[in-house]
Amino acid sequence: MAVIEARRLRKAYKSTLALDAIDLTVEAGRIVGLIGPNGAGKSTALQAILGLMPFEGELKVLGRDPWNARDALMAEVCFIADVAVMPRWMRVWQALDYVEGVHPRFDRAKAEGFLAKTEIKRTSRVRELSKGMVAQLHLALVMAIDAKLLVLDEPTLGLDLLYRKAFYDSLLNDYFDGERTILVTTHQVEEIQHILTDVVFINHGRIVLDSTMEAFEDRYAELMAGPDQAATARTFNPIHERQVFGRSIFVFDGADRARLAELGEVRTPSLADVFVAVMGPVSGQERAA
Amino acid sequence: MNKVRPFYWSVRRELWENPALWVAPLAVEAVVLVGFLISSHHLPRAVANAAAGIKAAKGSGTLETPYAMAAAAVFMISFFVAIFYALGALHNERRDRSLLFWKSLPVSDRTVVLSKAAIPLLVQPVIILVIAVATQLIMLLWSTIVLAVSGGDLGYYYSHVHLPLIWMMLPYGLAVNALWDVPFYGWLILVSAWARKATFVWAIGPWLALMAFEWMAFQTFHVRDLLSSRLFGGYQLAYTIDGKTTIDTLSQVTPMRWLANPGLWIGLVVGTACFAACIHLRRRNDPI
Would you give the DSSP letter of residue A120? Predict the structure, then answer.
């Protein structure tokens, strides 16, 4: 059974169509990056998955309808909405007591263990902690919950580089075990590329790309070519082109790597570059052509 | 697997977030106690005068009056704390975005709303009772010491300060008042779930408008009377017999009288509807 199963999932607000009948399947044991520009429908999709919002179409998370079974679902699904949702008046020990008191799958000793590696004091209030420490606290609580699905919505927004790196490192090393499923959205695409197993691009409420990272690496190629080769490269229909230090960098969708290699240096593009290529206004015209 | 008690911990969490629920009445009682200590050097004379049948000076009341005042002070401060608590109940979590944290845990909207309703209707009455009784005990203890040291008439004092009666009547009055107040807190918490800002204005504005409208249109005061009976009628309902609201005897405990009051039942229905609406709104609420 898939962890998330969406069929023609649709959500319309008064003036906008946030989700335009998307189909999405997330299997167990995957780390999926949901990536899209602001207003693309990422948050709407996450809210629907987390049972925070009614929707049209079919959506099953761990076999349940999230809107009608949110409280049962939350025993098996965790989410970090963003860094700023921990109640500011709460003390660290209160957060531990509370989550232990309401969550059947919370392992307090584990959470205490994670916290012991930080400088967070039990008696501190959340408002007294730095942003990075609040994120550590929230992550410690969440990682101590034996959940099947973890949803992260911009979990590292506003954190400095060290905290961001530590955040994803502990997620991979201390939490992910190959059976759990993680769904993450972020604008810091470069930082999560290496941890993802799957990537989904979403724009204007539609899924633009839904691929495993292996397929992604096979499909997209980046070519760096000198001015002499640029014209030839363009005949291979690049989906994006940019100039760097007098050289042209092209992104190709499904081109023959061996033939591209004759024109210059070929690499796997970063998610960010393909993101720009697929989402950018220029690429829209080119793909239509 | 942890054994979970979502309702219990939801109530605990409310007390953590709102320490004023117990700190404010404690602070008021501390002030009341200091006042009582200061006045206690009059006590031996007051007891002697009362025993001799000499009327006390106007305004100083009977020997029992300080005990009633100590209880009244807790009632009053708790009433104001309750109003502000209820207006923030489902509003603060939206304003500070912590709603998304609470909703990430397996606690149903019904449990959350009921735990918040339980604060003014269940938890506060218990807090009031405990603090009022403790204060009265301290007062009694201090009076006993003062009278014993000064050679006052302890027997007369004890027979004229009816604390056991007060301690039986207090929980009874608190319980009746809580039932009577269900629609009042239902309305306030509903406003806190619905209004995006200025919850206090939304809570009283419609009623002020209705009052003004009624007077302009018909020169009557039905809305005002309804409100004041809802705000202050609970204890009256519990204690008043034949127009008297003093607490004299246990025979005033007559549940059939207030159980037969249709206003109580209408209030319970309206209050329940408000809380049902709160659950419906909580489910759809976003941070603001």
Answer: -
Among A159, A178, A204, where does a domain finish? A204
pLDDT, tens only, A1-48 = 789 999 999 999 888 888 898 999 999 999 999 998 887 888 889 999
CA distance B14 to chain A (A): 11
Residue A127: strand, helix, or coil: helix
ipTM associated with this complex:
0.89
Choosing from A175, A204, A233, the residue where a domain stops is A204
Cβ of residue B5 closer than 8 Å to a chain A Cβ = yes
Q: Looking at chain B from residue 68 to 127, which residues have their Cβ under 8 Å from any Cβ of chain A?
A: 93, 96-109, 111
**CATH number of A39's domain:** 3.40.50.300
Give chain A's contact residues with B (Cβ, < 8 Å).
50, 52-54, 70-75, 78-82, 84-91, 94, 97-106, 108, 138
Residue A54 token pair? 């009614």
B23 touches chain A (CB under 8 A): no
- Give the C-alpha separation, B120 to B177, whole Å: 11
Is the confidence at residue A285, as pLDDT, over 60? no
Answer whether residue A79 is part of any domain: yes
Structural domain includes residue A21: yes
Question: Which residues span the domain enclosing A220?
Answer: 216-288
pTM across the whole model: 0.89
Q: Hey, which bits of chain A come out as E strands?
A: 4-12, 17-26, 31-35, 56-61, 77-80, 149-153, 181-185, 198-203, 206-212, 220-225, 240-244, 247-253, 265-267
Report pLDDT digits (tens) over A244-263: 888 888 999 888 888 888 88
Residues of A within 8 A of B106 (CB-CB) are 71-75, 102-104
Q: Is residue A42 part of a domain?
A: yes
In sequence order, what DSSP letters do the residues of A187-201 get, joined into one string?
A: S-HHHHGGG-SEEEE
Give per-residue pLDDT as tens, A186-220.
Answer: 888 888 888 899 999 998 889 989 999 989 888 99
Q: How does residue B16 score in pLDDT terms, banded at 50, 70 and 90?
A: very high
- Please tell me whether residues A76 and A177 are part of one structural domain: yes
Q: Strand pairing partners for A19?
A: A11
| Cβ of residue B284 closer than 8 Å to a chain A Cβ | yes
Q: Are residues A28 and A158 located together in one domain of the fold?
A: yes
- The full set of domain ranges for chain B reads 10-284
